[in-house]
Design goal:
With 281 residues, this protein is of the alpha/beta class. It contains 7 helices and 11 strands. A 6-stranded parallel sheet has the order 1-2-3-4-5-6. The chain has a 3-stranded antiparallel sheet with strand order 7-8-9, with helices on one face.
């Protein structure tokens, strides 16, 4: 995306009430006009977030404001140095850490401690699970790993949160302290735009919904909301059909979060691997 197109897009989003922008990729810092892109974004939005693997020095040249943030992909932690975290700049810094069934949680925690030390108290940690896997079938082992990690964080007075909502059938009797997590995927949180101005629902559901610009003009914002709402309802129909129609908590406390709309979990998974209370009425 060229800076001119990006600026036009930012104006369109800002005009329609968008106040927070998250810039991601791929890897945004490899864009040849990355710093110009960030400066344009700051003109339109009071808060911007940059998701990065920090694979080059461009991230160290960015100028941030008090409410801006950088989110670092922990998968690339081997290349991180103290300068990676731009500690001389204001704003928030976070590590996104994916926990899998194959993760060695003890080694992971020691590695996290070393990286957090480089961050000089400025780094927080967001845990996430692999959204391409059936987390219920790995519930027991994932729960143990998350219990170990969250307990270690509490013992060291370190802050953590969870990047995604988790379905209640996964959390039920899992013994994980996730804070406030109601298992609800919120329509207001969706909306992803690619470099060709195609609208997508989110990273978990990347299919193209509509191109935002047609015949040289941006489409009405109401149509954008309609396309996102349609995809949201389609996901929820899939959730109810496959797994959640007998769950007594569906709708009020949980709608599957970021996980259930995919062809990963079934009704049998919900009951067999979670022990979740259901009703057949």
């Amino acid at each position: 995306m060229t800076p001119d197109v990006f600026e036009e897009l930012c104006g369109y989003l800002c005009k329609n009430g968008i106040t927070n922008l998250k810039i991601m990729g791929g890897e945004p810092t490899v864009h040849k006009e990355f710093l110009q892109i960030i400066d344009i974004a700051k003109k339109f939005f009071p808060r911007i977030a940059i998701f990065t693997n920090a694979l080059n020095e461009n991230i160290q040249k960015v100028v941030l404001r008090e409410h801006d943030s950088i989110i670092y992909n922990f998968n690339f932690a081997s290349v991180f140095t103290e300068s990676t975290f731009v500690l001389q700049q204001p704003g928030y810094r976070s590590l996104e850490v994916q926990v899998r069934a194959t993760t060695d949680e003890k080694k992971l925690f020691q590695k996290l401690l070393a990286i957090l030390e480089l961050g000089k108290g400025r780094l927080t940690t967001s845990f996430t699970l692999d959204c391409t896997s059936n987390i219920l079938q790995s519930k027991s082992i994932l729960s143990q790993k998350l219990q170990f990690l969250t307990e270690c964080f509490r013992n060291h007075n370190l802050f953590y949160d969870f990047d995604h909502t988790l379905p209640l059938c996964f959390l039920y009797k899992a013994g994980i302290n996730v804070g406030k997590n109601d298992g609800l995927c919120h329509f207001k949180d969706c909306g992803l735009i690619d470099a060709s101005l195609n609208l997508r629902f989110c990273n978990q559901y990347p299919d193209k919904l509509i191109c935002l610009k047609q015949n040289g003009h941006f489409i009405p914002w109401s149509i954008v909301k309609n396309r996102l709402l349609l995809k949201f309802f389609q996901n929820q129909i899939a959730v109810l059909s496959k797994a959640c129609k007998n769950c007594i908590f569906y709708g009020s406390k949980c709608n599957g979060g970021c996980w259930m709309g995919k062809d990963l979990m079934s009704e049998n998974d919900v009951y067999e691997f979670s022990g979740f209370p259901v009703t057949t009425k």
